[in-house]
Amino acid sequence: MQCFTLTTTEDHITHLVLNRPQALNTMNATFWRELGAALTEVQRAGQARVLVISSTGKHFSAGMALDVFGAGGTQMDDSSPEGRTAMGALIQHMRGTFTQLESLRIPVIAAIQGGCIGGAVDMVTACCLRYTTADAFFCIQEINIGMVADVGTLQRLPKLIPEAVVKELAYTGRRLPAARAQALGLVNEVFDSIEALLAGALQAAREIAAKPPVAIWGTKQAIHYARDHSTDDALKHMGLLQSAIWSNQHVRESITALQETRPGLFPALPVLQDFGAPAD
């Protein structure tokens, strides 16, 4: 892959590393193709129990690569209804790629150093947890180049931090430093160095990966449903969800593993089947 590396450890942690530091890890056309394909495979395979996303270089990502649009890239044709319809389809495709992050069967952890700008904010707000270095910052850059953020920031960020703060950032294009982001609840923890950041993110991933994968999946489903529905609806949903995934075996194994101070042994998530490949 050209835009990132993807590895899976023995601890069932898949680590995706953005690796275009010379281009500030901007999101070019190849990035969108590769990320969508990688997330589809992670979702299908069931091998990973946590996905960690980190980066290289001074900045996590400067967002959308400007050469995606214009000469040699995707033409944003605003001269006709047909052109604007095509523009909408492109935005929908990009938005869907980041929604894959949110809808994965496993938690996603973002480890962020330096700038998290424009489209990178769209990406990390679709993740479950966000850890940063002390010098990290977030910027809704789109307003600074004359457009509206359109791939998820304005929809997800108000559910993570106060709406008035989102408006301030979205209207002014100001930077949100890591310390303030942590105080607002956007960032889980701030680290002094990139090395400490990666160690902290991977430690959280190992703790999550040690739990029953189905219980982690159910927890993610319940939290997301509660975020988007009334408390009463979410409680009803919780009853159905718990009855669907409850496992006496998993509970017994979890308790026994705690008593014996050893890792629990739990079944992997199943490989997902689809109609993409012909039957043998």
Structure summarized in a few sentences:
With 280 residues, the protein is α/β, with parallel strands linked by helices.
What can you tell me about this protein's structure?
With 280 residues, the chain is of the alpha/beta class. It folds into 2 domains: 206 residues, 2-enoyl-CoA Hydratase, Chain A, domain 1; 47 residues. Helices cover 45% and strands 14% of the residues. It is built from 10 helices and 9 strands. The protein has a 6-stranded mixed beta sheet with strand order 1-2-3-4-6-9, with helices on both faces. A 3-stranded mixed beta sheet has the order 5-7-8. The longest helix is centred in the first third of the chain and has 23 residues. The chain is globular, with a radius of gyration of 20 Å. The model has no long low-confidence stretch (mean pLDDT 93).
Please render the helix and strand layout as text:
Layout: E1 4-8, E2 13-18, H1 29-45, E3 50-54, H2 81-103, E4 108-112, E5 115-117, H3 119-125, E6 129-133, E7 137-139, H4 153-156, H5 163-172, E8 175-177, H6 178-184, E9 189-191, H7 194-209, H8 213-228, H9 231-245, H10 248-259
Parallel strand pairs: 2-3, 3-4, 4-6, 5-7, 6-9
Antiparallel strand pairs: 1-2, 7-8
